[in-house]
Amino acid sequence: MSNIHKKRSLPPLAALPAFEAAARHQSFSRAAEELHLTHGAISRAVAQIEERMGVDLFVRRNRRVWLTAAGERLLKATGSALDVLDRAVEDIHRHAGTSPILTVSCEPSLAMRWLMPRLGAFREANPDLNIDLRLAGGPVDLLADGCDVAIRRADYGISDDYITTRLWAEYAGPVCDPDCWENILARDVSNARWLHSRTRPDAWDDWKRASGLNVTPVSEQYFDHFFFALQAAVNRLGTAIGPLPLVYDDLAAGRLIAPLGMVPTGCDYVLITLDPPKRDPRIAMFFDWLIDMAQGMESAVQPK
What we know:
Layout: H1 16-25, H2 28-35, H3 39-53, E1 58-61, E2 64-67, H4 69-94, E3 101-106, H5 108-125, E4 130-135, H6 142-145, E5 149-153, E6 163-175, H7 178-184, E7 193-197, H8 203-211, E8 219-223, H9 226-234, E9 239-243, H10 248-253, E10 263-273, H11 281-294
Parallel strand pairs: 3-4, 3-5, 7-8, 7-9
Antiparallel strand pairs: 1-2, 5-10, 6-9, 6-10
Helix pairs in contact: 1-2, 1-3, 1-4, 2-3
């Protein structure tokens, strides 16, 4: 007999994640915290399953819960089923190489000062692939965030679950308006107002250690974000530590100079992916383009 029209005797599927979390933690409260639901929502979800199945899944006593034998069996099956679904979704996400959209997570300063000005050229060269740019920094969860790749400054521990592919080394040094250097600072960085960022507060100290120069400023000013400190340097408000590639366009256009040259910071920019970039043609295309765009940046690190 055909099973095509067989009716499945399944519990309410929408309630299963709540049950699985409650069963795993042996606590409705902890399940509610994990799933960002209320204790009552977890309790109702479990009650729906128990009503449909006609058995108790938990023993409830003195505000504590324990799994029954039936609950243990359902937990094992539910956990396995959710794991299979999770792997299937991840596999689909990894191999959706025919999608016309590549979702890229990028650090805000890098995106605004280097990547975005170049995306028009990417689109002209690759009209069939659109970049969906998300601005974010620090640790990334590609699957949870719905991103295909992430570009990060590798200054934190990146999970071993990801593939990290080096893009370029970071160089940094003091940057300022060319007229300020000649006419106001008298070619002495200690005469400058040093511009700091609260998101990278050790930039000047790191540069001093790397360059071997022990100098101090006449004054200092702090900004909430690195982007603002660099823009302040462009606007002649002082001298900032400018890392490549964030100041590359300003150096090329003459808006800023790096009078003392630049030194390697010891940090690399990396592309973070679920699989090696060459496995997905969209990611391979984007990766190759990034490398092409970065060619020649090292020429900006020489003293002016």
